[in-house]
Structure formats: structure tokens, C-alpha cells
Amino acid sequence: MSRIDVHKTYKLFIAGAFPRSESGRVYEVKGADKKFLANPAMASRKDLRESVVAAKNSYLGWSNATSFNRGQILYRIAEIMQGRSEQFVSEICALEGLSSKAAAAQVEEAIDTWVWYSGWCDKLSSVTGSLNQVSGPFYNFTTPESLGVIAVFAENKPSLLGAVRTLAPIIAGGNTAILIASENYPLPAITLGEVLSTSDLPAGVVNILTGKTSELSPWVGSHMEIDGIDAAGLSKKQEEELKLLGAENLKRIHRFTPINHPERILSFMEQKTVWHPIGI
Amino acid sequence: MSEFEYASAPESKEIAKIAASYDLFIGGKFVKAKKGKSFDTINPATEEVLAKIAYADKLDIDLAVKTARSAYTKIWSKMPAKERGKYLYRIARILQERAREFAVVETLDNGKPIRESRDTDIPLAAAHFFYHAGWADKLEYAGVGSKPKALGVVGQIIPWNFPLLMLSWKIAPALAAGNTVVLKPAETTPLTALLFAEVCQQAGLPDGVVNIITGDGITGAALVNHPDINKIAFTGSTEVGKAIARSIAATNKSATLELGGKAANIVFEDAAFDEAVEGIVNGIFFNQGHVCCAGSRLLLQENIADEVVEKLKKRMSLIRVGDPMDKNTDLGAINSAEQLKRIKEISNTGDAEGAQRWSAECKLPTKGFWMAPTIFTGVSQAHRIAREEIFGPVLSVLTFRTPAEAIEKANNTMYGLSAGIWSDKGSKILWAAQKLKAGVIWSNTFNKFDPASPFGGYKESGWGREGGRHGLAGYLTSESKVKK
Fold it and tell me: What ipTM describes this predicted complex?
């Protein structure tokens, strides 16, 4: 008799740990071949709240880390992902029904995305800040600064790349994040959590939830400790509802074309301008 | 204490030729409001009616937006950028030429001291047009990609505290980026915007590029909700800002929101006290405290608090309150009866909640709306006067023991527009500037503004920036943003 495979339980990733949903709920995820793949956790409102607490607790450390340090950690994520490529390829093949060549291309692009954003960490101020030529004896400069806790609704597909290209710019800018994985294609995002937990990324900087997008979205929209949202994975209707709720604390809510761009980082940063007189 | 005797030095009203009534400015000419409704604008220092102003409703707004769209499609978007820029230069020059007239009208309509409208509002407004004029043909260097494009028609709503200056903050970058605009000035201060319409005519600005519609909050809401607007730019209260955010949630309109503030002005023990006191006074009493970024929460290090408060009271006793048209006046009229009522209402909670009120002794005129410069000491963070924007000449004084506590208290607010730091130690200033969650940090100075310097808030103080390269970017498309 052939060997029986050991299957993995796909769990949440909160504050550096891999808990099940406190609600005990799971949902079934099927592969492209309609066969059972996994029962990932169906995150509850309480799981979301705990993720926000974790993200908030890790914010001070992460936002105050040197840009060089953050850049190295993002690069480290790429290194660890590279070593795990095969696992991601097989997950993507099973889930999205892609050829292994196409799946490998997606994984490679995801890895390269981490490398690209890694390089941005210590160049944001130079490229997007400014020394302003005001009319008077003042030293006046503007520099970008992180917002706080950002929720990210990963694109539905591509399953891995869609999570990475929304998440990487958030943490590159010094924010901490709650990644809400694609509802139908969540498995690579959960495995990404395993990569993050072994990449020197401080616990809580990224938290990953799986579950029903339609259920989580209004909770995210109305949570007063969430400062911004990337709405990539939401339907138009869900995005509208989210914006209505998010207006209560004027959340910065954005959605981008599926390209890598520094504006993905900067949209979740504030520009701070400092004045000081010049004189003796 | 005895007051210095100044001879009165009144500015003449003669230069301001205010018409008895004003229509809407649409398509390069003044047109009657379709329903013929109007409202009065008054001088808040005397309560005299200055002019009758047309009240725009939905039909007028629709006409204004259609006119702006047509001007955008047919003229403004096709014009070479350097020519567009030259119109802005012309506007800047005409504002400089007519500066005295604008200053007088502004002071009559708003109640602010002529010294401030003459030395701050009008010169800065002209400077904003001059600065942005130079951007018009250099947009590819503005940091939003190599092919930046205008958004289209922008709806702009401005407040009554800096009427012409806020107009220039809105219109100058919008036009430089290639947009056309429909602007609604505040209900209580429409005159300089209508005078600006004449400037557009004198500059030969193509018809429909700038349209000015007057009215109240309902007019503003109708502008926000017009389906053919591409972007909303609003300066005003956080409450209205949130309502706008909700109104546009289901649309593809973008928005810049400059909203409320409750700025902490922090004085450390190693500050130069005399300079700090000047900064505190400028921070809260400039423009009668009708400033969203006013330093309305004074945070004093505990060991110096008594000394600074004493110096502050002495300095406040020298503030000259009264006729805004007098060139010696420091503190003019409160902009409206409604605003005065609101200031008094929130201030009264200061007494009720246990803070100690002190006002400078001064004779207030019998007509008009006035408030003596006031401070509250013994204020705790829970008091309403420490949490809510008063938007008047009322300062709340709190204390702190350590720098960390100062930052904690300063950031303990839903707002994040501005903050002040007073210290003679460079590393401490930079440390505090880094920790403060606010968009504009004034260190050893306060309430400084410049067209080249981005202005705007964190948290519930709004979205986006105005001024500088960062403000300009808000009027341009970005290749990374999804179009719905």
C-alpha cells in the first residue's frame, strides 16, 4: 500500500501564532478539479479584533525600525519564499488549476515583488519627500510617514501574487497589516504566513485571516483602530459599503491597478511638513 | 494694567466698491440665479448689510458644472500648458495690483483685522497663483509619472475664515493641473470670490474655466452630489468632511479634505519663553482663532507653567480688540452670530467642567460679534474645551512633566492637522516632530503658510495635502489608481 500523505491544517496567523478561529468555524475549499483541498478557518469578528490588537502592538517597533532594517526583512521574506517555491507551486496548481510552469511564474513574480519593495524602504523620503523653498528664513521639509494599521483585501486571483503585491507595499512603508486572504483561493496566503513567521518579521506586523469576505468587510470598515484599507479583493458593492463605514474615522481606502508602484506604499503614508526658523 | 494709547488709524472703505447685489459667475459672466432667491452678506463688525448675494440651487449648479465641463473639453484641456500657466501668472499679477481693494473687502466681509488681510491673506493668495502658474508646463516633474493628466471638473467648497486665500489654495493648483472648477465660497464671506470673478474677466481667462456659485450648505451638498464632478476639494469641519466622504462612496469622485484640528502647542522647559509667548499668542489669536490649525491646546512643562501663564496674561492684556478696519487692531470681529454662539457654548463647558477662565480686560464694541481673548487653565484632557475645536480666541492650557507625556497628550485626539514645539534643543525638537501625529509641525514658530509648503492633516483632519508638489498631485491622475 502506498504511503498516506500528511495533510496540513490551514489556520489563521495572528500575533506570530497560528490559531484556529476562536469561533471554531471552518469552510471548505475545493481545488480546480472540484475535489476537497482543505478546511481553512472562517475568521470571526473577534479574530479580526485580535488581529488589530496585534497589529497595533507591533506598530511602534516596526514603524520606528530603520528603513534599512525593514528593507532587509522584506528581502529575507523573498529569500525564504525562494526556498519554499515548490510548496507554493503545488498549492497554486491544485487551487487555481494552472500548469506548473504558469504557477512557477506566479511564484517567481511574487518573490521578485518582495525584492522590489524591499529596495523602496530606504528611498521613500528621498524620492517623494521635499525640501520646500518657502519665502522666508525657514528650514521647511516634507517627509512621508506611516499611517498605522492597514487592512488588505487580497485580490481574488492570482492567489499568491495577489496577496503579495497588496501586502508588501503596506509593510514596506512602516505600517502593520491585516491581510484578508482571497475567499476562494486562500491557501497560498496562509502558507505565506509560515514564510513570514520565519523571516525575522516581528510578530504582529502581518496578521492573516481567512473566511468570508462579505462578512469580514463591514467589520473591517467600521473598526475605529484601522487607519487604511486596500480594497483590491472586494466587489464594487462591498467597496461602496466599506467606504460608507470607513468615513466614520476617514479611513484612507484605495484600490490600485495590478502593477507594482510606489504609490501603493505612499497612499498609506502621510506627508509631514516641519518648519523651523533660520537665524542666530 | 494701563493700555498704550494708540491714535486710531482707520483704513478707508472708499477703495472697496461693493455692488448692491451680486449674481452667480458662470461661463465668464454674471448670471441671475434661476429661482431668483438671494441672501445678505453682512459686516460682522457692524452688522450692516454689505450686499445681496444670489442663492444657487440645483439648476444653477447643473448649469455651472455643464459650463465647466464644456470649457474643460473644448478649451482648457486642449490649450498648451505654457499658455495655461500664463493665465495664472496674469491672475497673480492682477491680485497684486488690486491687493488693497481685496484686503478692504475681505476685512469688511469677514471681520478680520485689516493688518492680517493686507499682510497675510491677499499677498499669500497672489503668491499661490504665481507659484502654481510655474507648475502648469512642468507637470511631468511633479512626481506622479511621466504623463500626468488633469482630472476634469473639480467642485470646490471653501470656508469663511480665509476666503480669498482658501479660494487660491483651491483654484490655483486645479487650473495649473489643467482642470476647470466650480467653486462655492462660504455663505458669510462670498464677496472676495465674486471680486475674483472680475479678476478672471480682466485676465481674459477663457469662459467657464472658473465658475463661482454662492449659497449655503445645501448648495454645497448639491455640488458634491452632481454626477459630472470628478473631484471634490473641501475645507471645513470634520463633520461635513465625513458627510462628503459618504456622499462620494459609491462614485468615482476623488476628494481632498482639509478638516478640523485641535493642535497641541508644546512648550518645553528649555524654550525661549518670550518667543514662545509670542508664538502662543499668534497660534491661537491670529484671525480670531478662526484657524483649523490654531494652537488651541497649550501644553506647558509643569515646572515652567506658572511663569509662562503669567507672561501670557501680560501679553494678552496688550492685544487690541476692536474695529477690524483700524490698522492697529490685533483681534477683529467674530465672523458671525452663529459662530460666536458656538464659541461661547463650548467655552461655558470649560467653566462647568472645572477649568479656570481668564479673559483679557478689553472694551468690546456694542454692535457686531466680539469675544475677548480667553484662556482656561487647569484643563484636563477629558474636558470638552481640550477635545473639541472651538474655532475662536479661546486657549486651553494643560501641563506635562516629561517629553513622553507631552507627546502622549498631544496625540490624544482624533485630529492631526498641526502641532507646535518650543525648545532650544535641536535633537529634542526633531524627536518631538517625529513623534507628533500631525501633518504640519511648527517648531519655534507657528501659523506659517507658504504656497511651496504642503499643508494638510493626519487622521480625522482630512485627506491629502494642499500646497507644494504634494498638493498639486491631488489634481492629477495617477497611473496606479483604478478607474471604475
Answer: 0.96
